[in-house]
Design brief:
Bound molecules: D-xylitol-5-phosphate, zinc ion
Largest sheet: 8 strands, parallel, barrel
Number of helices: 7
Order of helices and strands: EHEHEHEHEEHEHEH
Helix content: 25-40%
Distance between the termini: 14 Å
Radius of gyration: 16 Å
Number of strands: 8
Low-confidence stretches: none
Strand order of the largest sheet: 1-2-3-4-5-6-7-8
Strand content: 15-25%
Length: about 220
């Protein structure tokens, strides 16, 4: 198993949205690796969040990569409106049935990364057809749609399954991201199974009564194996 740098992707939907700029500056200063932006369309998931204009505004206001997670049935609507920068991530779902190479190739040409996500009930095999053009596999560890959801029982073992699935097929370079109810302890365990990008929301960075100045270094410690 290859050793990756473990990275923190702070969930923007869990931030104080009316004071977002303040949170972004704090996250930058605390050395968070990227900003996770959950795009939801009220069809693929029962919630509605941010759109392409919001992502563009974020790109203009921070040097941190944006880790965009499109929980949408029409990813082309997003793709056609956005210009990803070097290091940005564009992640779509495998449950939306299509060949994504036409998106992945131009993303790579700009130095951006292509990600493929699966929901908790989708088997690891669903990513196989996308692997030749994929940089990251995102595993949903909760049913998608809302912050603060409950971890799906037994889901953490899927990280180890996915890692073996990728490694056996020669894709040691593809990283695994985990998204949903990723607490410090769970992150530590999933890092040991091969995850290297951790989406951090209410279970880790945005905890009641704790500041980012307290939670970010604690989480960093938890993923430093
Ligand atoms: C869930 C979202 C997550 C969520 C993670 O659909 O994708 O980004 O905000 O945060 P918590 O820790 O609240 O589950
Ligand atoms: Zn997400």
């Amino acid at each position: 198993m290859k050793k990756y740098n473990n990275k923190i992707s702070a969930s923007v939907m869990c931030s104080d949205l009316l004071n977002l700029e303040k949170d972004i500056r704090t996250l930058e200063n605390l050395g968070v690796d990227m900003l996770h932006i959950d795009v939801m369309d009220a069809h693929f998931v029962p919630n509605l969040t941010f759109g392409p204009d919001f992502i563009k505004a974020m790109q203009a206001h921070t040097h941190l990569p944006v880790d965009c997670h499109f929980m949408v049935t029409e990813p082309d609507l997003m793709y056609s409106k956005l210009q990803m920068r070097k290091g940005d991530i564009f992640t779509v779902h495998a449950e939306v049935d299509r060949d994504y190479r036409y998106m992945a190739d131009p993303l790579h040409a700009s130095g951006a990364l292509f990600g493929i996500a699966i929901n908790p009930d989708t088997p690891v095999e669903a990513v196989e057809r996308h692997l030749p053009y994929t940089d990251l596999v995102l595993l949903m560890t909760v049913y998608p749609g809302f912050a603060g959801s409950k971890l799906v029982e037994g889901i953490m073992e899927k990280v180890g399954q996915m890692r073996s699935f990728l490694d056996e097929r020669g894709y040691q370079d593809i990283e695994i991201s985990v998204d949903g109810s990723v607490s410090n302890e769970r992150a530590n365990y999933m890092a040991s199974l091969g995850a290297s990008v951790f989406v951090c929301g209410t279970a880790s960075l945005y905890r009641k009564g704790m500041s980012l100045e307290e939670t970010v270094p604690e989480f960093r410690q938890a993923i430093t194996l």
